[in-house]
Amino acid sequence: MDQIRIGIVGYGNLGRGVEYALRQNPDMALVGVFTRRPPSSLTLQTPGVPVYPLDALDGMEGAVDVLLLCGGSAADLPEQSPRYAGRFHLVDSFDTHANIPAHFAAVDAAARAGGKTAIISAGWDPGLFSLVRALAAAVLPCGESYTFWGRGVSQGHSDAVRRIPGVRDARQYTIPVPAALDAVRSGANPALTTRQKHMRECFVVAEEGADRARIEQAIITMPHYFADYDTTVHFLSEEELLRDHGGLPHGGFVFRGGRTGRQEQNRALVEFKLTLDSNPEFTACVLTAFARAAFRLGRAGQAGCKTVFDIPPAALSPLSPEELRRQLL
Amino acid sequence: MDQIRIGIVGYGNLGRGVEYALRQNPDMALVGVFTRRPPSSLTLQTPGVPVYPLDALDGMEGAVDVLLLCGGSAADLPEQSPRYAGRFHLVDSFDTHANIPAHFAAVDAAARAGGKTAIISAGWDPGLFSLVRALAAAVLPCGESYTFWGRGVSQGHSDAVRRIPGVRDARQYTIPVPAALDAVRSGANPALTTRQKHMRECFVVAEEGADRARIEQAIITMPHYFADYDTTVHFLSEEELLRDHGGLPHGGFVFRGGRTGRQEQNRALVEFKLTLDSNPEFTACVLTAFARAAFRLGRAGQAGCKTVFDIPPAALSPLSPEELRRQLL
Fold it and tell me: Nearest by CB to B328, which of A133, A275, A286?
């Protein structure tokens, strides 16, 4: 079988995660990493794969089947996905929820014009969680859905703490409130405030001589980021931070609590849970599976922008339809 | 919007569950229940909906968009699904795993010949669980999958106990072994025997004067059904059985424990869990959502037999693609 030829755009945590994921998928081959940094500054883990400057993508339409865009949603993807969607099948993990309709429209126009298939927002949230939310709501129309995130490191909240004067480094964990999880699991379909759903825990390395009480106050009263949550702040040494909080674990839960029966007297609870040692590596695994789908839909002439809602699960799997029915149905 | 016109074939627990589910889905309308019993012996919960003898389906091709087949997998569906697949879009919950390839082939031939869309095995297992198994294995190719069933009533095992001389009535619960769930959740990807995964609990009403020790022995040594499991037997009165074990709860878990990263050193765990007060009512909810998909794929000319692997999640949802992206992505 011919391998699907993959190009990675961006070689941060996510791009490296895709490189690792491709090793686990023998039907795909990495043909190059494309970067805005000097190519010679990057050392790949895959022998023989070249690093190109981003510009080199122009003219490589015949050498790459699917581009996996591994940049950020703030600046990279809004520019890159529409730019490349007309020339390559592509997958991104665009995750700025409010801007998804505009991103979809821009990518869709480019992909249709070029006759290519693009899949956006194909991580775990948005992505797998979205899929479960749609599936569970379709099956249980009478009910309530809940999404919880964590326990995991939030990069945005960690950055917000780092910007406080006197903070040298910081890590912020988002944590579902156990009582909220229990209430949802009971089938009671509770109404939950922001504060009742999640709490936040910060591990902070202070500059020498910094006023810790002031830093703590600045954190727990910070609007949008912390003021609406119960937040705990721990101070620790730089060594402790690196030793105990060096990873990027994450995860979360999607619940749908529904009612069935003649008088809607019976409960039905759907729970989908992810527990991830490495958030970017798992996101990369999702992107990689959707690369297979982008290639197949593209080959079938289904041009335009798609999301997880548009992809038949079989398109993600290396198994044939017959194998899927025999082994997994 | 024109409603999707639904016909229910078979009016047992599952058929009644579909009737209740249709009330929660305003884009669908029940146009008739079709039964092998004398139609006058059935009392529907939906005013004004007629009950027809099964033969009345011949000639109703213009009045029914999608048939939901609510009979059993042993005798009903192998005969009915191929028979009607050429004339109606249809959905069934065929669940005899070993016979799925043959059932698929028979339904596919009929559906293609008639230009109709059939979706088979669209319950929760096979069905939603199959979908999660395929999805999780595609995302985490390096890993192990586990399916656990219960705590819930197994009809087949309950029937097996009832066939023992001296047993008046019985209910059997299949129960995941808590230590096995813990081991899987730890990310250790353990090898588990049949006995290590599930245990069985039987509630038995004995005939007066029956030898309870003999009944208990007959249960726990029964090949295939109980001999490979740790089984607990409780004797109780008929009143107690009806009072405490009158429902049909069920549920279960699908896990995928995978590895990510440069040296596959990081764990990623997917857990999907269902907790259902009523097994047939939830299965009916799944069938009903897939009726929407069968109608839409049928309208789009996608003739033939499909399974959950072939259905884009958007096809299950009453929301438009724009609503899905805005609200659930």
Answer: A133
What's the gap in Å between the CA of B322 and the closest CA on chain A?
Answer: 8
With a CB cutoff of 8 Å and minimum separation 6, the contacts of B72 are none
Q: Does A186 touch chain B (CB under 8 A)?
A: no
Name residues 72-101 of chain A within 8 A of B (Cβ): 97, 100-101
Q: Is A165 on the interface with B (CB under 8 A)?
A: no
Answer whether A271 sits within 8 Å of B272, measured CB to CB: yes
Q: Which B residues 39-78 touch A at CB under 8 Å?
A: 45
User: Are B329 and A97 contacting, i.e. CB atoms less than 8 angstroms apart?
Assistant: yes
Q: Is B155 helix (H, G, I), strand (E, B) or coil?
A: helix
Q: How far apart are CA A97 and CA A104, in angstroms?
A: 11
- Chain A residue numbers with beta carbons less than 8 Å from the beta carbon of B45 are 262
Asked if A141 reaches chain B (Cβ–Cβ under 8 Å), the answer is yes
E strand residue ranges, B66-196: 66-69, 89-91, 117-119, 143-149, 152-153, 167-176
Confidence check on the interface: ipTM exceeds 0.85, yes or no: yes
- Joined together, the tokens standing for residue A243 give 């030793």
DSSP assignment letter at B3? P
CA distances from B240 to B204, B243, B250, B281 (A): 10, 5, 20, 24
Does B310 touch chain A if contact means CB atoms closer than 8 Å?
Answer: yes
Other beta carbons less than 10 A from residue A84's beta carbon: 28
CB contact under 8 Å between B141 and A24, yes or no, is: yes
Residue B67 amino acid letter:
L
Do A278 and B268 make contact, defined as CB atoms within 8 angstroms?
yes
* Window 220-259 of B, Cβ < 8 Å to A: 258
Distance of alpha carbon A237 from alpha carbon A254, whole angstroms: 35
Q: Please name every residue paired with A266 in a beta bridge, in sequence order, or none if there are none.
A: A260
**Do A271 and B273 count as a contact with CB atoms less than 8 A apart?**
yes
Distance (Å, rounded) from C-alpha B259 to C-alpha A272?
A: 19
Cα A18 from Cα A267, distance rounded (Å):
40
Cα–Cα dist B138/B130, whole Å: 12
* pLDDT band, very low/low/confident/very high, at A78 (cuts 50, 70, 90): very high
CB atoms within 10 A of CB B166: 15
CA–CA distance, A221 with A231 (Å, rounded to integer): 9
At residue A1 the predicted structure's pLDDT band, cuts being 50, 70 and 90, is: low
Q: How confident is the model at residue B153 (pLDDT cuts 50, 70, 90)?
A: very high
The residue assigned the tokens 């709490």 is A199
Model pTM score: 0.97
CB B204 within 8 A of CB B280: no
Domains of chain B listed by start with CATH number:
2-123+278-322 (3.40.50.720), 128-276 (3.30.360.10)
Token reading at A82? 């529409």
Secondary structure element (H or E) that encloses residue B256, with its range: strand B250-260
Q: How would residue A278 be classed by pLDDT, with cut points 50, 70 and 90?
A: very high
Beta partners for residue A186, in sequence order:
none
